[in-house]
Specification:
7-stranded antiparallel beta sheet, mainly beta, Jelly Rolls, 8-stranded antiparallel beta sheet, 21 strands, 275 residues
């Protein structure tokens, strides 16, 4: 119990430090794709979501309640070569759910996973109070508590929940690593500025090898980490939009009119392996 309390306090301290710090302008090494070969991708060129690649977080016929108050349901659309993940307010509910806010989350668990490589999304982030979009990796055994992330980690390649903040926080994303879910291990590892991320497309990626994680925005490094001991097992992909109700942190979705919120628009997701 004491270890869990200490871990929670350290995680809370990291949140405070990120809150008062300043996002960096990406200025590290440049990504060299000549070192990689493409192993998986979705260019969203069809007219519907490819069910052989993606599954909903939850069920396609029954929404998934979450403790933060949003419901996961089918709010995705594929058109004009893009994936659109919407956030909607449903007076009558969706799929038997209550009145409230709904969104979608997609994952590749059971269809695709990989150990090491380069993982990238090109996207335009959702605009609105309380909208929290992300591209991340996760393992099936992440709940195993053993003091290490080597047997399974969550790698948040990017998260966006700063829309309500003043510049430069508003125009920024963060990366984080978590492991040992039952003990609340992990925290944010870097924070980078992005030029106009809500109206223009940018790429967000991580290079993951046996020694470290390197995070990129538009092909330029903005941070790296070995937190938890670098994961050595296969991870699957997740695209998600969640909703927050916390005004001091990610904003409060209830402050929006439905017309205030824009979609999370994804041009492509690509995964590469080292040659």
């Amino acid at each position: 119990m004491i270890n869990r309390i200490v871990a929670w306090l350290l995680s809370a301290l990291n949140v405070v430090l990120v809150w008062v710090s300043w996002p960096v302008v990406p200025a590290g090494q440049k990504l060299n794709l000549d070192n990689f070969t493409l192993t998986w991708s979705d260019e969203f060129d069809g007219d519907s979501l490819d069910r052989e690649k993606w599954s909903l977080r939850g069920s396609s016929s029954y929404p998934m309640p979450r403790v933060d108050g949003f419901w996961c349901y089918e709010t995705t659309d594929v058109r004009d070569g893009m994936l659109y993940i919407s956030s909607v307010y449903a007076e009558e509910g969706l799929g038997g759910g209550p009145t409230g806010y709904y969104t979608s989350g997609l994952h590749t668990s059971g269809t695709f996973s990989q150990t090491f490589g380069y993982f990238e999304v090109r996207a335009k982030l959702p605009k609105g109070d309380g909208l929290w979009s992300a591209f991340w990796l996760q393992s099936d055994n992440i709940a195993n508590v053993d003091g290490s992330g080597r047997d399974g980690s969550e790698i948040d390649i990017y998260e966006s929940f700063y829309y309500t903040q003043c510049w430069p926080k508003k125009d920024s994303v963060s990366a984080a690593i978590y492991f040992d879910y039952g003990a609340l291990q992990g925290h944010g590892v870097c924070w980078g500025q992005v030029k106009n991320p809500y109206d223009t497309f940018h790429t967000y990626g991580v290079e993951w090898n046996e020694n470290e994680y390197i995070f990129y925005i538009d092909g330029t490094e903005y941070g790296r980490s070995t937190l938890g001991g670098v994961c050595q097992t296969e991870l699957f992909l997740i695209l998600s939009v969640e909703h927050t109700f916390n005004a001091w942190w990610g904003g409060d979705i209830r402050n929006n009119k439905p017309s205030d919120m824009t979609d999370f628009v994804v041009d492509y997701v690509r995964v590469y392996q080292y040659k």
